[in-house]
Amino acid sequence: MKVLTHLVAAEVVWFATTAIFEVDYPVAAIGVAAGAALLPDIDYPASWVGFLFKAFSDRIASRAGHRGFFHSFLGFLAFGLLLYPLYLSQYQILWWAAMAGYWSHILVDMMSLGGVKLFWPSPVRAIFPGRDDYRVRSGSSSERVYFFVVLALALLLYPLSQRGVSSLLSGVKASDPQWVQVARVVDGDTIVIDLWGSETKVRLIGVDTPETVAPNRPIGCYGPEASAFTKRVLGGQVVRLSGSTFGQPRDIYGRLLAYVALDLDGDGQLDDFNLELLRRGLGRTMSFAHDRRREYLRAERAAKAAGVGLWGKCR
Predict the structure, then answer these.
(1) Nearest-CA neighbor of 314 among 158, 210, 175, 215?
(2) Active-site choice (143, 211, 295, 300)
(3) Any catalytic annotation for residue 211?
(4) Which of 203, 284, 292, 293 is catalytic?
(5) Fewest 10 Å CB contacts: which of 49, 285, 289, 312?
């Protein structure tokens, strides 16, 4: 396959992966995925990367041929191990981008007539689909058609990768918002509301503040500050509760899961209190999926970069 085909296919794999797994990523990850998508062709001297490293590429091609080790599971794993220090660093997301790009190259070449030796050193070639007339001949009109199809997919998936698959479900089956009064605050991320004349515990969706009231557990760093903020802002207030568009309405402890909104700055507009906790560095995002997770991850990342709240005080 040609360079442009591999570059665009890398972005399809990366955008799809980040959309499905709700991963927020920097712009640099797009370039890393594209660059990694060219590397398996180091065993092909006529390729772009083979030309850059001609001496090395010539040696590999003469000994192992094209689409051998570097187009196999072993080559993929070796590439991951080579970049393992990146995985252990603060730039782990770039490691995942590189792995997605490298794997995309293998997938694309499986769709060519020659296939790849996916299980190298076994000589068996992996191909997909099975019929020759359904696969792509490099440089032919079939590759041009394939390229434009992949390009269209990339353009469709990019905005989805920015928002996540959960954004498609936004508003589909969320519970109707309810206005309730906060009876008391338990800690930074848990409140008690007066709902239809009875008290109900509410756990804020998507944010986890340090512990302050859990039995047999020490008070978490910056936990008192988070609790004090929630008590000061929400105590006795009338707030709007709304649920996520997917997932269970209650957690394993029976607490109602909700987004809490109220006017924080007096401008007449409702503000997301859960998000405000993250912006102030009073809590961390949670790993489970919800329809605002991407926005919450960005807020956490900004607070962490600025050393706000617990990010500047706690290790």
Answers:
(1) 210
(2) 211
(3) yes
(4) 203
(5) 312
Give pLDDT tens digits for 90-120.
Answer: 889 999 999 999 999 999 999 998 889 999 9
Q: List, in sequence order, the alpha helices (H) in 25-72.
A: 28-38, 48-52, 54-64
Residue 209 phi/psi, 5° resolution? Answer: -90, 155
pLDDT at 63: 81
For 187-202, the pLDDT digits (tens) are: 999 999 987 778 899 9
Contacts 24+ apart (CB under 8 A), 20-25: 20/165, 22/164, 22/165, 22/166, 22/289, 22/293, 22/294, 22/297, 23/93, 23/96, 24/294, 24/297, 24/298, 24/301, 25/93, 25/97, 25/161
* Catalytic, out of 255, 279, 292, 294: 255
Angstrom distance (rounded) from CA 140 to CA 10: 20
Calpha distance 9→105 (Å, rounded) = 8
> What's the pLDDT at 24?
81
Q: What's this model's pTM, rounded to 2 decimal places?
A: 0.66
Kindly provide the b/e burial profile for residues 24-49, where b requires at least 16 CB atoms within 10 angstroms of the residue's own CB.
Answer: bbeeebbebbbbbbbbbbbbbbebeb
Structure token pair of residue 228: 């004090």
37-79 tens-digit pLDDT: 999 999 999 898 988 888 889 888 888 788 889 999 999 999 9
> CA of 277: how far to CAs of 79, 138, 210, 309, in Å?
39, 53, 11, 10
Helix (H, G, I), strand (E, B) or coil at 111: coil
pLDDT tens-digit map of 114-130: 889 999 989 898 988 88
Domains of the chain in sequence order: 3-163 (no CATH), 178-313 (2.40.50.90)
CB-based contacts of 202, cutoff 8 Å, min separation 6: 190, 191, 192, 193, 241, 255, 256, 257, 258, 260
**If 0-12 CB within 10 Å is exposed, 13-18 middle and 19+ buried, where does residue 180 land?**
buried
- Based on the residue annotation, tell me whether 143 is a catalytic residue of this protein: no
